[in-house]
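[retry 2/3] Sodium/potassium-transporting ATPase subunit beta-1-interacting protein: previous attempt timed out, resubmitting with same input.
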Amino acid sequence: MGCCSGRCTLAFICGMQLISILERQIFDFLGYQWAPILTNFVHIIIVILGLFGTVQFRPRYVTGYAVWLVLWVTWNVFIICFYLEVGDLSKDSDLIMTFNMSMHRSWWMENGPGCRVTPVTPPPSWAPEDHRYISIAGCLLEYQYVEVAHSSLQILLALVGFIYACYVVKLISEEEDSFDFIGGFDSYGYQGPQKTSHLQLQPMYMAK
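[retry 2/3] Sodium/potassium-transporting ATPase subunit beta-1-interacting protein: success.
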């Protein structure tokens, strides 16, 4: 019963992770955030493998999923520090999020709740010709705090998922040990019941 309950809870957490990361992936695509896009893609694959291991009693898959969650939490902590500009980090850097391939920012920068985008004409002399120069005002929530909220949700789900992943691996291992103890297939192999013969063999003598 405990194993079923733990597995069901972990499967639910994996489902929530998939829904939330797919939503985040869509907005990262819209904002051309290449580094988060690649990391999100890896996360989606490993969560699917973790879900498969949970359903199919594969402790190795669940263990790998738990190890990845540690890295996933680290990445999201970095994202939070990036957007809050902790230390020398700057949210206006093009190198980290877009690999310096574009000047795009988070999709939420222009499309956040209450944001009003106004084109600036004429654009400043330093602005590239193929880019527009805009002014953004009236946002109820700045885009960096939206990104911080997304990362905070991922950290929360990852921490809960890590706890339940360790719990499920422990329960599966205990069930396997219990199966071996009550007569499962052990390392010596299985031998079926042998029939005993009730016939008595008598020696035969040949006359010369």
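[retry 2/3] Sodium/potassium-transporting ATPase subunit beta-1-interacting protein: DSSP finds six helices and two strands in the chain.
[retry 2/3] clearing retry counter.
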